[in-house]
Write a structure and sequence with these properties.
The chain is of the alpha+beta class. The protein has two domains: 45 residues, no CATH class; 143 residues, Glutaredoxin. Helix content is 25%, strand content 33%. The chain has a five-stranded mixed sheet, with helices on one face. A three-stranded antiparallel sheet has the order 3-4-5, with no helix packed on it.
């Protein structure tokens, strides 16, 4: 089976059609929203993970974010899950990665727009050369935390953070809710997925605020 085209969160096989639908009505009257993947013989429906409550009568919960505690380039300590019960956007990136760099304006915008609404933005640099990371940040100051995973004094536990999340290339993003569960993953640049990111963050932030 040959995969050839990206449709939201799934890859389509040759000849399959992708339809984003706000209303999918079943013959029994049930209505859901999602993405239809139609290969001509069968139709698969892709829905957000956090839209599912149960599978075969069993609770279907979002997986917990792998826990860690790390120190950023300023010396501040950060932990996942967050003790203050904030929603966290966790980004893995590197200074040499062009797609990571192209997302920086969006990250600054997200940081400024949502931090007063309870969003915590954490970024983990997977640069192997700490000097190059420091040099990059001299030319591109970042207002949000940057956690290094290389350099003198960085403990082994901090070096290993990236391996905990098992992502496929950078940039990689994880949206973690106030309870410490991963509710959404984004792969690749977010610059073209801004609306999708906001659609995930807005209800999470509202829910977290209502529980404070």
């Amino acid at each position: 089976m040959r995969f050839w085209r990206r449709c939201g969160l799934v890859w389509l096989v040759a000849g399959a059609a992708c339809i984003s639908a706000d209303e999918i009505r079943f013959k029994d009257g049930q209505v859901i929203s999602g993405t239809l993947v139609d290969d001509g013989d069968t139709i698969a429906i892709v829905v957000p993970r956090n839209a599912i409550a149960q599978v075969n009568g069993q609770s279907f919960e979002s997986p917990p974010a792998p826990p860690f505690t790390a120190v950023d380039v300023t010396g501040a300590t950060h932990s996942v899950p967050d003790s203050k019960k904030r929603v966290t956007l966790l980004k893995f990136w590197a200074s040499w990665c062009p797609f990571c760099r192209s997302d920086i304006p969006l990250m600054k915008e997200v940081f400024e727009r949502y931090r007063d609404q309870g969003l915590r933005l954490l970024t983990v640099s997977v640069d192997q050369d700490r000097q190059k990371l420091d040099a990059f940040m001299q030319t591109e100051p970042l207002p949000y935390p940057v956690i290094p995973t290389a350099g003198d004094g960085v403990p082994a536990e901090q070096v290993a953070i990236a391996s905990l999340y098992q992502y496929q290339g950078i940039p990689a993003y994880f949206v973690i809710d106030a309870n410490g569960a991963i509710v959404k993953r984004f792969s690749g640049s977010l610059s073209r997925q801004k609306a999708n990111l906001e659609a995930v963050l807005t209800p999470l932030l509202a829910s977290a605020k209502s529980k404070r």
